[in-house]
Specification:
Elements (H helix, E strand, L loop, with lengths): L13 H22 L3 H28 L5 H24 L7 H20 L1 H7 L10
Length: 140
């Protein structure tokens, strides 16, 4: 059930796209861990993804500032995304590997879809702004 990165998910900046790809790969790994019911690995990977999100959010905010993009609404979308990850982590931890069939994997797939929605829909406005800049634009 892995979610594959597509060009339509690109927001037009190498740093942001790389971070998005990394986050998607991490969610796919959590999905695998859910399939094999490796709860300790899920917990570790969720902590890692939360840490990476925090770092990534700061970089994206710096890029937005550089291109003079109003970031308040996008920052709220980041907070919702982080909350979804925390809820998924907590739900899977509460089940402690005791879920029926593919329940754990479905939760991870939902999380992956939240990421894709963020890439394609919630990042649409910044994508328009970034399209007027070099793909390799870096914050100071």
């Amino acid at each position: 059930m892995d979610i594959i990165w597509t060009k339509q998910m690109s927001v037009g900046n190498r740093i942001i796209d790389s971070a998005h790809k990394e986050l998607l790969a991490m969610v796919n790994r959590i999905g695998y861990m859910a399939r094999v019911k490796d709860c300790s690995a899920i917990s570790e990977e969720c902590k890692l993804i939360e840490d990476r999100l925090s770092a990534y959010f700061a970089v994206e905010e710096n890029i937005a500032r550089l291109v003079e993009f109003p970031f308040t609404q996008h920052k709220l979308a980041h907070q919702r995304l982080l909350h979804q990850i925390q809820c998924t982590r907590d739900d899977l931890a509460a089940m402690n590997g005791i879920w029926s069939g593919d329940e754990g994997e479905k939760r991870c797939y939902f999380l992956g879809n939240c990421l894709v929605k963020h890439f394609k829909e919630e990042s649409e406005q910044i994508k328009v702004v970034l399209s007027t800049h070099l793909y390799d634009l870096k914050p100071d």
